[in-house]
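To illustrate the input format used throughout this study, we show a single complete record. The first block contains the structure-token representation of the backbone; no residue identities are included at this stage. The design step must infer an amino acid for every position from geometry alone.
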């Protein structure tokens, strides 16, 4: 049977126009490989060690002594990895519980189901065996109901279903003392690698424009030895409260939070006021894994590219001459990655800076930058570029 965009779209539950667009960059065979990789988690799950509280080596030794299969990444030394186990068969047993897309992709890797992840509670009782399914009806895990449907409707929070069997399993450290004491932060490897490209230093002023939930902002503060200022901005109080919570949990005092739309962030921080900017704007998220389906269109991707440029224009305003912009996304398109770097270089007075990192592969179109490809590097799809303000 010939390989077609239509066949790949049906198999992986993607819009045809998105598959066709990716095929222009990767070929149909390449898209099949990428979408196959993205449909599953990578081989490792990562956490970042807060080096202000413990050395990564000591953290690994403690976790190993407790039976966790932890190892230190050879390049990003504060990254600790754990193998992802699977694939296991999920059985269709008991009552079906439909969960939302975000919950389905977490449950697929072994997470329990919490009440907010059930858009329409099914009739079930405590202790009942259930099969959790994605919005498309794909079984993602078997579980035991911890709450009845009446309790879910009344409370709409808390643990709803214990996950007892999912296709993939990873260690859970959310209740471990390392998490509660602020020794670790759950973060992907490419996201950690990005901060090594920016390399924030003690005493600098760093702005994170789209900071929630706080991974890059808190990582920057740790690399700065909590000396300097990290201004973490996001547009809602709920998102900013999450940043504050993580910064407090990690024991960081240099992280200052602001509720604001970062497309206009110069209104609150001032022009030419910061040394470095972190910009990880909303994107089409084609590199996020595991992904059981995708419903954004090619038109959405092109609109997102222009939306990202609004943030880039503001980043150029707030940077001091000679300051650095770290631009990252968790997607794969040229429009949201290399073409945005070219736009910033031609229109915003920013010069792409060569990046040196023993991870990932070279960006396309001769743009200085790094791509993490899901099927090649075993990570989420991710893009990293560094730009310097001229003047």
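Output of the design step:
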């Amino acid at each position: 049977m010939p390989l077609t965009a239509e066949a790949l779209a049906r198999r992986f539950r993607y819009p045809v126009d998105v598959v066709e667009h990716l095929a222009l960059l990767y070929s149909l065979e390449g898209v099949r490989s990428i979408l196959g990789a993205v449909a599953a988690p990578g081989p490792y799950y990562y956490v970042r060690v807060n080096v202000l509280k413990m050395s990564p080596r000591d953290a690994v030794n403690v976790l190993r002594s407790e039976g966790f299969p932890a190892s230190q990444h050879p390049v990003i030394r504060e990254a600790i990895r754990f193998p992802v186990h699977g694939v296991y068969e999920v059985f269709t047993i008991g009552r079906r519980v439909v969960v939302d897309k975000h919950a389905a992709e977490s449950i697929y890797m072994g997470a329990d189901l919490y009440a907010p992840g059930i858009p329409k509670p099914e009739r079930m009782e405590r202790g009942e065996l259930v099969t959790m399914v994605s919005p498309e009806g794909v079984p993602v895990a078997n579980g035991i109901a911890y709450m009845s449907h009446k309790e879910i409707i009344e409370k709409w929070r808390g643990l709803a279903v214990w996950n007892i069997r999912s296709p993939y399993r990873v260690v859970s450290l959310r209740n471990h003392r390392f998490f509660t004491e602020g020794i670790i932060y759950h973060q992907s490897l490419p996201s950690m690698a990005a901060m090594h490209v920016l390399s924030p230093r003690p005493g600098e002023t760093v702005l994170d424009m789209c900071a929630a939930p706080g991974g890059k902002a808190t990582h920057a503060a740790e690399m700065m030895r909590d000396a300097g200022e990290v201004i973490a901005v996001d547009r809602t109080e709920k998102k900013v409260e999450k940043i504050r919570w993580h910064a407090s949990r990690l024991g960081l005092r240099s992280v200052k939070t602001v509720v604001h739309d970062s497309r206009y962030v110069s209104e609150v921080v001032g022009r030419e006021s910061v040394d470095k900017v972190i910009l990880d704007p909303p994107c089409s998220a084609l590199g996020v894994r595991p992904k059981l389906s995708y419903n954004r269109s090619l038109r959405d991707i092109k609109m997102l590219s222009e939306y990202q440029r609004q943030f880039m224009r503001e980043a150029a305003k707030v940077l001091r001459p000679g300051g650095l912009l770290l631009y990252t996304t968790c997607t794969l398109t040229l429009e949201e990655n290399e073409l945005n770097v070219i736009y910033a270089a031609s229109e915003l007075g920013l010069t792409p800076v060569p990046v040196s990192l023993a991870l990932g592969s070279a960006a396309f179109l001769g743009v200085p930058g790094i791509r993490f490809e899901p099927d090649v590097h075993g990570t989420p799809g991710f893009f990293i570029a560094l730009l310097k303000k001229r003047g």
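Structural context for interpreting the output: The chain has a mean pLDDT of 96. The first strand starts at residue 44 and ends at 49.
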